[in-house]
Every structure is written in C-alpha cells, then in structure tokens.
Design a protein that fits this description.
The chain has about 90 residues and is mainly α. The protein has three helices and three strands. Helix content is about 55%, strand content about 10%. It has a three-stranded antiparallel beta sheet. The longest helix has about 30 residues. It is elongated and about 60 Å long.
C-alpha cells in the first residue's frame, strides 16, 4: 500500500526551462513566465533568479489546457448544431 504513495515517475521531478515548458504547452517562454506570475504554473527560482518548472506541473497544466480546449470545441459544435436546427 505504501508503494502507491510514492511517486515512481522519475521524470516528474525533472526541471524545465521556460523554453522547454513552452514547447510542451505550445506557448512562448514569455507566456510561460506570465502563467507563473499569475500563479497558474509554480516555479522554482535559482539563486540567479532563473525560473525552473517541474515536469509534473507542466504536464498537469498541459492536460488542463487540453481538456479546456476539448470542452470549448464541444460547446462550439453544440451551439452550431442548435443554430442550424433553429433556422
């Protein structure tokens, strides 16, 4: 049972630069920094002030963004179908 409490994904703690995180998210490094500034994507800061992002946090946000995009697309189809049936 204790094994379920341990994160066994070795890549989950991998640290990514804003550029690397942006590639995964389909965003610019500036947009990744903005997400961090807004509190949507946590980051670690190095002594020199560089932001590094945990791979697990980036993957979580990517999944949230994909789900939101799917919901928007589904809603757009429903609205389009409703408009077509009312005409």
């Amino acid at each position: 049972m204790a094994a379920n409490l341990i994160d066994t994904d070795p890549g989950a703690d991998m640290l990514l630069t804003p550029c690397d995180a942006g590639r995964i998210l389909g965003l610019t490094p500036e947009a990744v920094r903005a997400l961090n500034n807004k509190g949507r994507l946590p980051a670690l800061k190095t002594v020199s002030g560089r932001r590094l992002f945990r791979r697990a946090d980036v993957d979580r946000l990517a999944a949230e963004r994909a789900e939101a995009a799917a919901m928007r697309a589904q809603h757009a189809v429903a609205v389009s179908d409703a408009a077509a049936s009312s005409s």
